[in-house]
Amino acid sequence: MIRIACGKGRKERLVPLSPRLLKELRIYWKQYRPTDLLFPGKSKNKTYADTTIQKAIKVAAIKAGIKKRVYPHVLRHSYATGLLEAGVDLLTISKQLGHASFVTTMIYPCAARMSWAGESSSAATAMRSRRGTTPAETGTAPASQS
């Protein structure tokens, strides 16, 4: 497990690691020996800027030949959908994603079914709007800061 200190919604959570990823992270850690953050930004105690992450994902998608629009939140959806397809129960997925409400996690089975049927991810957005669910309620938009 790896501890995510300031993930989406500034929530802390534990996320399982595959043996392969753990091996790669150990190699990285031995080489760079980060002290505060595993992946520091320009300085050792600053995280990467959001735009830096967005650009890196966009470049990786282009290199991989992915034609669809790719952004950081797609990784969350892909992770959750992969867990669902592997048979992980929705409550476990909900906890790993840090959803405050189990209902928020219910979008993933619908999105997975649409994906299997070849429908676009915009269908999930349309489904949410028909339900009257806002992006903030589904965890697809940043929560307002108070």
TrEMBL record:
Residues 123-146 are annotated as: Disordered. The keyword Transcription regulation does not apply. SUPFAM superfamilies: DNA breaking-rejoining enzymes. It holds the Pfam family Phage_integrase. Keywords: DNA recombination. Residues 1-121 form the Tyr recombinase domain. InterPro entries: DNA_brk_join_enz (IPR011010), Integrase-like_cat_sf (IPR013762), Integrase_catalytic (IPR002104), Tyrosine_recombinase_XerCD (IPR050090). This is Tyrosine recombinase XerD. It comes from Neorhodopirellula pilleata.
